[in-house]
Amino acid sequence: MDFTNKTVIVTGAANGIGKGVARLYAEKGATVILADLEEESGNKAASAIEEEGGKAAFVLTDVRKEPDIVLLMKTAYDKYGHIDILINNAGKGLFKSPYEVTIEEWDDVIHTNLRSVFLGSREAAKYMRKNKEGGSIVNIASTRAIMSEPNSEGYAATKGGIVAVTHALAASLSEDRITVNAISPGWIETGDYSNLRGADHEQHLSKRVGKPEDIARACLYLTSKENDFVTGVNLIIDGGMTRKMIYEE
């Protein structure tokens, strides 16, 4: 899959999955705009891509704020002349007893994880609809949209919302030739992979914990022009963990 001459925006791209996604798009020839609230890490990630021969730029962005998202899209369009792909990856966790979560904490995770997806998609689509071939949006949800552990209500609500808003946007933006899909990652290790235990890997049918590049390759698939028949889906990438039955011995 070739993404030469494509402009790709990745939010939450300073670290983890977003960083891996941005790097792979650059390897495939795209110009990548990394958006994040962590300025130092974001600039380092963009510089690393350029040092490897890729094309990248960093834009300081607080995805909770509508003016920041509007400016991000305008900056990308003004600099490169088109926006082709948006990866809505930015997010944060909220794991705290529902008895103790403040309304400020609740609103913060909702705005960071869910409202940002709607705002980012809307603003990017305003430019994508100008393209002859339209565009593609991928929203990073989570397997926590369909399964939970205690004290994760805010995070679960946002990830479930991302799955739902994805198929709604797929319907709304179809007339503008824009595909909208979601990816629900399972356990993706973004730190030191060598520190994982054998038991960690054995929880998966794949016999291993996931890596950022597993999600990055799925983004390529969902945004490739050859795959414009795929829209409105939630692609679960979890090594089969949500399909493995576990019994106490």
Description:
With 249 residues, the chain is α/β, with parallel strands linked by helices. It has a single domain, classed as 3-Layer(aba) Sandwich (Rossmann fold). It is 41% helix and 16% strand. It has seven helices and seven strands. Strands 3-2-1-4-5-6-7 form a seven-stranded parallel sheet, sandwiched between helices. Helix 1 crosses helix 7 and helix 4 packs parallel to helix 5. The longest helix has 26 residues. It is globular. The mean pLDDT is 96.
Task: Describe the SSE topology.
Elements: E1 7-11, H1 16-27, E2 31-36, H2 39-51, E3 55-60, H3 66-80, E4 85-88, H4 103-128, E5 135-140, H5 153-172, E6 178-185, H6 198-202, H7 212-223, E7 234-237
Parallel strand pairs: 1-2, 1-4, 2-3, 4-5, 5-6, 6-7
Would you kindly provide a brief summary of this structure?
This protein is 41% helix and 16% strand.
CATH superfamily: NAD(P)-binding Rossmann-like Domain
Mean pLDDT metric? 96
Mind summarizing the main beta sheet?
A: 7 strands, parallel
Helix content: 40-55%
Secondary structure class reads alpha/beta
Main sheet strand line-up: 3-2-1-4-5-6-7
CATH architecture: 3-Layer(aba) Sandwich
Radius of gyration: 18 Å
Taken together, the total number of domains comes to 1
User: Beta-strand percentage?
Assistant: 15-25%
End-to-end Cα distance: 46 Å
CATH topology: Rossmann fold
Task: Provide the succession of SSEs.
Answer: EHEHEHEHEHEHHE
Q: Which CATH class?
A: Alpha Beta
The beta-strand count equals: 7
- Poorly predicted runs are none
Shape: globular
The DSSP helix count reads 7
Protein name: NAD(P)-dependent dehydrogenase (Short-subunit alcohol dehydrogenase family)
GO molecular function, one term: oxidoreductase activity
InterPro entries: NAD(P)-bd_dom_sf, Sc_DH/Rdtase_CS, SDR_fam
Pfam family, one: adh_short_C2
